[in-house]
């Protein structure tokens, strides 16, 4: 028995010693040129020498699988487009940097399409469902009161540039492209299509994220290598990207609330202050920790229990908002949460409208707009009971 125990312990320690560091290179369809330049074998060899242990590198162009891997912690290192890196950052990874500067994407439609809203019942060409293009397209549609469900047809294909060809031959009414691709195409095909909406800037090229649980010295070695020696394997140098806000925006893309809400009045900061000054109730629909940490002075905490999709076609029956019953149907009520990417106050406003409340106001800018203006916030030291 003693010899067996010793043998099993030896096997366990040997297996641990042979455990790999794993890295995944994720290639977007339009990054195929850059992706083909990356040598998997060279990357594997160099990283193994840098860390003095075996590194296994895998490549994929399946964005859905890559996104699932970030949530499950399937790899120690992700070398990926920004939406994959953004998901990794939300699930226990730290950012090393990006290979390219931030860039914008454009939602473009044939000239007869007057606005984003006019795409209702129409057709759009998009790349893979988890591509950065589709994330951004979903966000721009939502911001203008549309869901993919409002379109007659969504064609998920593989190559974004082909969307411009689809516009050219009239087989699709809209697509999404990088600004540079659009500008080059429009010089040659002016008058065919026009810009309907523009995204905020998002990190370009590949982004590198490393598991936080790796030893600090290993993370430091990896960061130095990617910044100084990545070109030996076909990668561009990875520059530090100190601003995480673009990744936060990418993680929330496709979840932008509409800019309008029928049955409610969308209000800005000055209007909120005037309404509250005249006796309106300001309702904070966020979770307890957020309200406790900071909130607008005087705001009433009535959390919206959100389980439905962040989409204008959300299923309200999946959610809960018991605090609504505490509000006076005849009073002016202002709902707010964490800004344009937060759906709780939008859904709460919809619930109030559906329940027959007469004076519903939606502060879409919420806490970010309040804080950006330098307005005072306060903390709650008390334990918050469920509403």
UniProtKB/TrEMBL annotation:
Which Pfam families does the record match to this protein? Answer: Phosphonate-bd (PF12974), Rhodanese (PF00581)
For molecular function, the Gene Ontology terms on record are: thiosulfate-cyanide sulfurtransferase activity
Which keywords appear in this protein's UniProt record, sorted alphabetically?
Signal
Q: Which PROSITE patterns match?
A: RHODANESE_1 (PS00380), RHODANESE_3 (PS50206)
- Which residues are the signal sequence here? 1-19
Q: Which residues form the Rhodanese domain?
A: 276-379
InterPro entries membership? Rhodanese-like_dom, Rhodanese-like_dom_sf, Thiosulphate_STrfase_CS
Q: Does the keyword GTP-binding apply?
A: no
Q: Which SMART domains match?
A: RHOD
- This chain belongs to the protein called PhnD/SsuA/transferrin family substrate-binding protein
**Native species:** Scleromatobacter humisilvae
């Amino acid at each position: 028995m003693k010899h067996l125990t010793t043998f099993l312990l030896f096997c366990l320690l040997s297996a641990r010693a042979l455990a790999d560091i794993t890295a995944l290179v994720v290639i977007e369809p339009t990054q195929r040129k850059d992706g083909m330049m990356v040598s998997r074998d060279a990357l594997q060899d160099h990283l193994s020498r840098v860390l003095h242990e075996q590194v296994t590198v895998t490549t994929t162009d399946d964005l859905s699988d890559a996104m699932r891997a970030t949530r499950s912690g399937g790899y120690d290192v992700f070398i990926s487009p920004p939406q994959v890196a953004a998901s990794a950052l939300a699930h226990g990874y730290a950012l090393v940097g990006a290979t390219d500067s931030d860039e914008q994407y454009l939602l473009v439609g044939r000239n007869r399409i007057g606005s984003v809203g006019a795409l209702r019942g129409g057709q759009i060409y998009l790349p893979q469902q988890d591509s950065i293009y589709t994330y951004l397209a979903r966000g721009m549609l939502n911001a203008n009161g549309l869901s993919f469900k409002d379109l007659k047809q969504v064609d998920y294909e593989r190559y974004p540039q082909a969307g411009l060809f689809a516009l050219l031959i009239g087989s699709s009414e809209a697509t999404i492209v990088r600004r540079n691709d659009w500008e080059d195409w429009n010089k040659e095909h002016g008058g065919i299509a026009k810009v309907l909406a523009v995204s905020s800037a998002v990190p370009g090229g590949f982004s590198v994220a490393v598991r936080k649980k790796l030893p600090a010295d290993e993370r430091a070695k990896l960061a130095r290598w990617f910044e100084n020696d990545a070109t030996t394997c076909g990668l561009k140098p990875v520059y530090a990207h100190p601003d995480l806000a673009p990744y936060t925006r990418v993680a929330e893309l496709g979840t932008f609330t509409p800019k309008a809400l029928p049955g409610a009045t969308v209000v800005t900061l000055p209007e909120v202050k005037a309404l509250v000054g005249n006796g309106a109730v300001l309702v904070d629909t966020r979770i307890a920790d957020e309200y406790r940490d900071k909130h607008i002075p005087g705001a009433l905490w009535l959390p919206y229990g959100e389980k439905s999709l962040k989409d204008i076609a959300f299923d309200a029956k999946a959610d809960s908002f018991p605090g609504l019953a505490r509000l006076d149907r005849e009073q002016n009520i202002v709902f707010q949460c964490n800004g344009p990417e937060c759906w709780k106050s939008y859904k709460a406003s919809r619930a109030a409208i559906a329940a027959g409340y007469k004076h519903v106001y939606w502060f879409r800018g919420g806490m970010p707009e309040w804080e950006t203006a330098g307005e005072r916030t306060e903390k709650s030291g008390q334990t918050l009971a469920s509403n």
